[in-house]
Amino acid sequence: MRILLPIAAVLISIIFLLPLFEMATPSGRAISKKKPVSLPVMHTNLAKLVDSTDDAYKLIFASTDKGGQPLYIGKGERRVILGDRLAQKRNFAKQLNQAGAQGYQLVATSGKGNFAITRLKNIIYEYDWFETNSKWFFTKTQFEEKLQVLSRKGFSLIDHLFISSTCKEEPLVPHDAPIGVFNVPLDDCTYLDWFLVEREKDAQLAKDFKLVRYSTGVQTAKTRAAFVTAINNNLSTRFYPTHLLSKFEALLQPSANLDKLFIDKPEVLVVTEKWQKMQKKVNELAGQGYRLFLIRHEIALMYRPREKSTPFYSYSWVYTNDANLETELIRIQKMGGRYSATCPGIDGDKNALIFELPSVSDGLQREYKTFRFELSEPPDADQRYASMDLTPISKDNLKTINQLAKEGFQVKDLFDFSDMYNLKAGALLERVR
Predict the structure, then answer these.
(1) pLDDT per residue over 67-111, tens digit each?
(2) Which runs of E-coded beta strand occur in 19-79?
(3) What is the spatial distance between Cα 172 and Cα 189, in angstroms, rounded to a whole number?
(4) Rounded distance, CA 267 to CA 289, Å?
(5) Distance between CA 244 and CA 433 in Å, rounded?
(6) Rounded distance, CA 268 to CA 242, Å?
(7) Segment 176-229, tens digit of pLDDT
(8) What b/e string do you get for 140-170 counting C-beta neighbours within 10 Å, with b at 16 or more?
């Protein structure tokens, strides 16, 4: 049974378990007592793609090959997912590598990784992936070892998707219990996460990274300050925060795209708050000059430029399941809003779009559009396998997106709708004039 765990301070009893966890040095690099795990590199394979290679965007979705293990079966609300989860991910990565071999680069994925959209860059990209299977909500078991194997081959982490959390026992306390109270015994749960890595083809230069985490797995004022200090100290060495893995972990990687942002060593602040209060807290700090940089469920990373003359911002959350989604986007446009990020929920679904609203207009006009994608199950005579495909309307939407790309629109992100089988996703497009 999936248990919705509150993000809470850890009970004193967990201190006795601390030797089991990897600790962070002051520099932020975790010390691992485990041997690295060797992983095979995915090879480029042919796979059916939705459109021609001349299109600006290609949509990738999880499916299976004829004669293979079924991944989906049933119709409508009675549809269930069968087959091997890993086979599904391998198929997804195979299609992603096919697109990469044609010069397409990953732009975004949906919350559970059933959809991805790529953009033509005329550079050959290669992709690989790995999973972590953890008993603890505050650490990703073997994450560092697995990423290290791939980083030595030139890969960098580009996406992190939360797959599921399940626990053996019923909750001991309500989901919204006060901080410091656990729902279930700590070792009775399983947390699955999926990670995607990318490199330019035949890249030989090894990539480096640093993992910063709470040294004890306990959130206190002292451990939170040490966590933030470790991030700030690494900025001068050009290791920048690129992913928040959990409420207790951050991944730092070199990035030429972030050099300009962090050249003046802005003040970085980490916000941990229950999701119901996160928007209010982010806007309180925005009123003090901070800007949102990264966000995940119940954790956000913000920064404040050293230059005090920069304009202040506020942030607006737009929920994708809202019937007034398009109306909300028009409101955002009129306010000069700029897309910032999606905010995953506790189940990993990207169902909140966050927009940055400037106090002073930058003189640019932004226009937003959304399009939906949905998978269907075409009839199969022998019923031996389920071959997923886009619905006709979804294929038309993809064609429209590629037409709009010629008019200056760009896909900013993918997001999710309320769909327990994750067979629906949406794309957010932006045009700046």
Answers:
(1) 444 444 444 444 444 456 777 788 889 999 999 999 999 999 998
(2) 23-24, 30-31, 57-61, 72-73
(3) 13
(4) 10
(5) 32
(6) 13
(7) 444 444 444 555 788 899 999 999 998 878 999 999 998 666 778 888 899 999
(8) bbbbbbbbbbbbebbbbbbbbbbbebebeee
